[in-house]
Amino acid sequence: MRVYTRTGDKGETSLAGGRRVPKDHPRIEVLGALDEAFSCLGLARSLCGVGERAEVVAKVQAVLVEIMSSVAGFATPLRPEERVAEVEGWIDDLEFEQEVAGLLLGRERGFWLFGEDPAGSALQLARALLRRAERELVGASKSEDGLAGLVPLINRLSDLLFVLGLALSVEAWIRRFARVLSSCLIQELVGEVRKEMGCGSLSLEEAMRLIASARRRAEELGVPMVIAVVDGAGFLLAFQRMDGALLVSCDLAVKKAKTAALIRKPTHVVAELVQPGAMLYGFASYEDFCSFGGGLPVERGGKVVGGIGVSGGTVEQDVDVAYFALSSFGG
After folding, report:
1. CATH 3.30.450.150 in the chain, residues?
2. Looking at the chain, which residues constitute the CATH 1.20.1200.10 domain(s)?
3. CATH fold of 12-177, please?
4. What angle do CA 216, 219, 224 make, to 5 degrees?
5. What is the Cα 268 distance to its own chain's centre?
6. Predicted model pTM
């Protein structure tokens, strides 16, 4: 089957029913703008990944297919007024996104400089293309029947894309700010820890003893694990990977130990502290940070002198092994 047909070489194309029209026909201009927006939404959806927002974008694409079919003159079950109400419901469901847009728009009206987030930027591009399609549609409806009712629907779809894209851009800015802030805080925290190192830190012998205890418990559970021990400043002291342990656990064990030592809390507790609105929100973006259970601070005389990280089993098993090792430390 050939991709090309040569039927459009003379500047004409077909609408529904085989009606031949020039390629600059008002309906074709509308279809072209809608097609551009549709394609851009495909890019935005791929950048959104998997989740609620990607699903919303997919629903917008599905509506655009119906609109394009209607503009082309095909019989469709599309009822624009019903779809407008449905899209308004989608916007209402985006509670967080609406709050972000409401807060920002309430403070300042004007043009926005987008670019913080690839998906958010793609959505804004799709919105701009939809706005162009809307303008083309207004013009086409003056000479073509059955198009005027589509204007409110496209208008509402572009509103949806604006709100969603703006929220993604704001979230990206928050993440970037949090990374910078977290890096500064971590460096400050490491400095404070180093000042306290006068109270002593783990020795290599103690670190090896912790690893031996952890390994003994892992063997009892029948789970090959990776165990890492760091000193009070988060620097690696000892490391051991049991035969058959998952390779990804090599990195996770070190990060768990470092996080527990620097934050001075078990990593399964830290997981609650990095949720949106919590005390350490933003720390999760720090490169060496890990909030999976299995990391514990090691204390001596009430002072944190190191950390142990265990990875390879379930979260419960990792935590179990870490606590078992800590019970043998006697600090």
Report:
1. 200-327
2. 12-177
3. Hypothetical Protein Ta1238; Chain: A; (1.20.1200)
4. 115
5. 22
6. 0.53
Q: What is the dihedral of CA 311, 314, 315, 316, to 10 degrees?
A: -120
d(CA 298, CA 313): 21
Write out the chain's pLDDT in tens, 331 residues: 666 677 666 787 777 777 888 888 888 999 999 999 999 999 999 988 878 888 888 999 999 999 999 888 887 777 878 888 888 888 777 766 666 555 555 545 555 566 678 888 899 899 999 999 999 989 998 888 888 888 889 999 988 898 888 878 777 766 665 665 555 665 666 556 555 554 457 889 999 999 999 999 999 999 999 999 999 888 899 999 999 999 999 999 999 999 899 888 898 888 777 776 666 666 666 677 888 899 999 998 888 899 999 999 999 999 999 999 999 876 5
Which of 263, 245, 257 has its CA nearest to residue 192?
263
**Beta-carbon count within 10 A of 215 CB:** 18
Sorted by sequence, the CB contacts under 8 Å of residue 37 that are 6+ apart come out as 64, 126, 129, 130, 133
> How far apart are the C-alpha atoms of 291 and 12, rounded to whole Å?
60
Which tokens sit at 278?
A: 């919590």
323: tokens are 């606590």
Q: Find residue 240's DSSP bridge partners.
A: 227
CA atoms within 13 A on the CB side of 325: 33
Pick 200-327's CATH classification: 3.30.450.150, 3.40.1790.10, 3.30.1140.32, 1.20.1070.10: 3.30.450.150
Question: What is the C-alpha to C-alpha distance for residues 314 and 330, in angstroms, rounded to an integer?
Answer: 26
Reduced to 3 states (helix: H, G, I; strand: E, B; else coil), residue 199 is helix
Q: Which residues pair with 295 in a beta bridge?
A: 309
Torsions phi, psi for 245 (to 5 deg): -70, 150
User: Do 179 and 282 contact (CB within 8 A), yes or no?
Assistant: yes
